[in-house]
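Bug report

Summary: structure tokens for Protein translocase subunit SecA differ between web form and batch submission.
Environment: batch mode, default settings.
Steps: 1) Submit the sequence below via batch. 2) Compare with the web form result.

Sequence submitted:
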Amino acid sequence: MAVSSIPRTPVDALDRPERHIDPPTTLERLWRWVRAPLHLPDRFQRWRLRAALPAIHRHAGRLAMLDDVALNDHILSLRRRLLADGLTPRLRCETFATVREVAWRELGMAHHDVQLMGGLALLEGRIAEMPTGEGKTLTATLPAATAALTGVPVHVITVNDYLAARDAEAMQPVYRRLGLNVGAIVHEMSPDQRRTAYRADVTYCTNKELVFDYLRDGRELSHDRTPLLAHAARLKGSLDDRRLLLRGLHFAIVDEADSVMLDEARTPLILSGRDSNDPVDIALIDDVLALAGQFREDEHFVREKSQLHLTEAGRQVLAEQAERRLEARGNQSAWLGRARREWLLQQALVARHQFQRDRHYLVRDGQVQIIDEHSGRVLADRRWEQGLQQMIERLEGCEPSDPNRTLARLTYQRFFRRYQHLAGMTGTADEVRHELWRTYRLRVVAIPPHKPSQRRDWGVTTFNTPNERWDWIARRAGELSAQGRPVLIATVSLADSEALSLALGERGHDHAVLNARQDAEEAKVVAAAGRRGAITVATSMAGRGTDIALETAARDAGGLHVIIAGLHDASRVDRQIAGRCARQGDPGSVEWAVCESEPLLDELRGWQRHVGVLHQRLKRAQHEREKRHARERARLLDADWNEADQLGFSGRGE
Ligand SMILES: Nc1ncnc2c1ncn2[C@@H]1O[C@H](COP(=O)(O)OP(=O)(O)OP(=O)(O)O)[C@@H](O)[C@H]1O
């Protein structure tokens, strides 16, 4: 039974007219008016970018008259002029017009004006905020090709391997026609394949692969600590550049910039190696886990804002237990020091209570594999640090792996600042524009949509238990599918996607599932998700970047309907998922189905847990979590500044 409902479309009245997005309230109008002067710089930027369009169109008109041979000659001459004169404003417009013409001839898509504006903003080193589905992939070809034609190596960075490979392949005809080559880095590649891909004019890759490759290069260069020493070594002949993977950090265009540069920047990237010389103390791990199993919540430990803390009673029990173990001549070093034993126990409590199977990790082939909280994908050879991995392996009855030894570490904040020229694009940057400026000195420019959005918001429906929610969603999806509309249901965790799949199966609804366990057929699932009546259940794997192309019959039936089952850590993520529908002026709708057992509610404490309807409490929890994450990022960066810089081998430094 749904407990309350903030405006909703009842299941039994699906043929009623849909509710449009609410008009702004008086308070919202007032707030907009107060904020209006703050947006003036943004308006000025848009006006400035728009002012460059007539020149691009003039060149485009001329290029459209050329036959294929003449266009190829023009490209050659343009390249020569770019290499000789550099990127003058005139050549910039001419290059944009050329890329546009080539995209039209090779892909059948000519950049819209707003995409040209987005491309200009990227070339100037800004964050172009373009609504979801506006064609950022095509937009990125403008600055990427322009920079590559002037001889600058370009990295187009995105959030997952699937998107890196897809975008490189889809845009390759444009680059090829311009005489440029394209590389794509995916996880499975060997060092030689990576080197070749990085040597391309434009390289598509993910942030993780890129930073790990950079760290690997840093280790190669560890004897030549500064650029000067590296140069000296090169002159001496003792440094062979061929062993390096990257060609330095020149121009980066970061797709889904808020995710890559902020959401993922809460933890440093750690390059580690297995340390087989330091075997795992299984007896100690078992002992600590057993002890943690006796600790009760609220008595021995408390959960505060998703973190666990020992209470005074918990500390006392731990001290007594440690004494007993010391008397029995147990592992002296682990139990003797107070800080060490408390830390060990806290790790065990975290392993027991904070990490859930099929939400934070999955067990496959006898191994614990981490699920990336942002992309919903398996991080194949990533492991938790400081004994946590072994504890979880033990709890899951897997063979504990060798502990890790940290070889190098780096935060995204410091990494991206090392690029000589940095730009980004995303559909959701407005609320983090100040942080992007503070951290990366990147300004956000909001680019308007090509066509007004036709997305309709059906509101929020709330439930007491997950089972009620799954039943309701299964019924809803079945009814919409029968009307010919494709339905995408986004769940917060892998376990949720499987529970929902079960409910759909019980009702006899054909559906596809896309999650970390069933990721092999990703391209096929996404390709089928826009067919008439298709039902697709997905974790955040189908969030950012996923482009669901609609069949004509599906578009005529009302377009894709998205059901968001549970709020994510940041409202930006929810908006990205909603952005899978109503793209490029298509029709589409979105609604939320939330439940009293939402994990996000852990973020609230005291009165916050009890005041307001569920959806308001969830929004409050989301806001609290966003604030906490922003604080964590700021703390991490501060801590990082204080560390000695081990890797200043490329780019402009900080
Ligand atoms: N100029 C254009 N003309 C025609 N179709 C276009 C044009 N630009 C983009 N598209 C189409 O629009 C769809 C969405 O493009 P894309 O996936 O790049 O959007 P996006 O802005 O990256 O979305 P997201 O924010 O979800 O990542 C694609 O199917 C693409 O082919």
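Above is the batch result. After comparison, the two runs are identical; trailing whitespace caused the diff. The two ends are 56 Å apart (CA to CA). The mean pLDDT is 85.
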